[in-house]
Amino acid sequence: LMEDLRSLGLDSAEAVLADFVLGEQDAALFGQNAALNSDDLPLLEFSAPTSLYLETVQLNQGLARSYRRQELPPITGGASGMLSSAEFRFQLAKAMWGKRDMEEALRHVNLALAQNPRHLPSLILRAELWQQQKLPLRAVADLETALKVDARHPRALFKMATLYHQQRLPKQAEEYTRKAIAAQEDLADAHFLLGQLLMARGQADAARRAYQKAADLRPDAPTTFARLGEALMAVDALPQAIEAYRKALGLAPEGAELHLALAQALDRGGEEEEAFRHYGEAIRHNPHLAAAYVGRAKYHVRRQEHRRAFDELARGARRNPGDVSLLRHLDEVMAEVK
After folding, report:
1. From the CB of residue 52, how many other CB atoms can be counted at a distance below 10 Å?
2. Helix count (H) and strand count (E) of the chain?
3. Mind listing the pLDDT tens digit of every residue in the chain (338 residues)?
4. CA pseudo-torsion sign 133, 135, 140, 142
5. What is the full DSSP assignment across 62-111?
6. Helix (H) or strand (E) holding 137
7. Dihedral (CA of 34, 39, 40, 43) sign
8. How far apart are CA 190 and CA 147, in angstroms?
9. How far apart are alpha carbons 271 and 197 in whole angstroms?
10. CA-based nearest residue to 16, from 99, 131, 116
């Protein structure tokens, strides 16, 4: 049963109560003046609320809840005091967040913290809710409280790092990222963030090591291999960079930026034919990548095929009329032709 529930994003049996909207009597009151909807005379298409009028979803939910006189249905069994526990409210909040119902998620997590102000999962979840609502100071306050409860809690440390990173405070972001890694070595996201921070500071070799650790921990993440490729290019480890980009493409074969990055690495390594092909793949998946047209044009220029180079750049300029790099290269090709 729990395996099935987890496939729905629910971590406890009690979390199914997050789907409770109205009891029988409240539902009857809500629909008392509505026309009867039946199989042979369907006035409603039941899939419509998930595909149409999405801008009114919150309004519809609020209207339905305004008829609710009992918050939860009658429940038999279960541990004594379960419904008033912080953990129960946390599970409901988490389920509501998974349904993108921020208002209800915040209500339940507030109730959880009213029951137990030191409930770590609720403090961290509320910080994530504040972060999503662009209220970083409230998020920091909750994470500081969480870290007073457990100064080495890896998730709280990492969330603090991401908050500082979003606020463009790299020194504090790196401090908390390193603390998170010290608390839990196998945090792939923390190693990835550390790589980003180090690359931004110009420490490409240290960033390479951080990205490699992230890739080792999560070998199914194409973005990690792409960033690893960038760091390897920055330290002139060209064969390893090409291998990293190939791994990224193996995981995300339609990634236009990945095709472009691999093409540029291959170009730098003298593998012009394969580079040309990947420039073409980049354009096929995203015709607005100006650098891919430039790469193909340079291929033709090296072969004295100036007309073809001009055609590539003209095609790119039509797709990207505001990109001056294409116009500059067009001028250069035209000058060579003259």
Report:
1. 10
2. 19, 0
3. 667 666 666 666 676 777 767 778 888 888 887 777 677 766 665 555 555 556 666 777 777 777 777 777 777 666 556 677 898 889 889 988 887 888 889 999 999 999 999 999 999 999 999 999 999 999 999 999 999 999 999 999 999 999 999 999 999 999 999 999 999 999 999 999 999 999 999 999 999 999 999 999 999 999 999 999 999 999 999 999 999 999 999 999 999 999 999 999 999 999 999 999 999 999 999 999 999 999 999 999 889 998 898 899 889 988 888 877 777 777 776 666 55
4. negative
5. HHHHTT-SSSS----SS-TTGGGSHHHHHHHHHHHHHTT-HHHHHHHHHH
6. helix 136-149
7. positive
8. 17
9. 31
10. 99
CA–CA distance, 256 with 292 (Å, rounded to integer)? 10
DSSP state, 231? H
265-286: b (≥16 Cβ within 10 Å) or e: bbbeeebbeebbbbbbbbbebb
Rounded CA separation 83/73 (Å): 11
Helix, strand, or coil (residue 132) = helix
CA distance 35 to 39: 13
Token look-up 């291999």 returns: 225
State the sign of the Cα–Cα–Cα–Cα dihedral 114, 118, 124, 125.
Answer: negative
Written as six digits, the tokens of 20 are 């409770």
Separation CA 216–CA 225 (nearest Å): 10
Give the C-alpha separation, 104 to 129, whole Å: 11
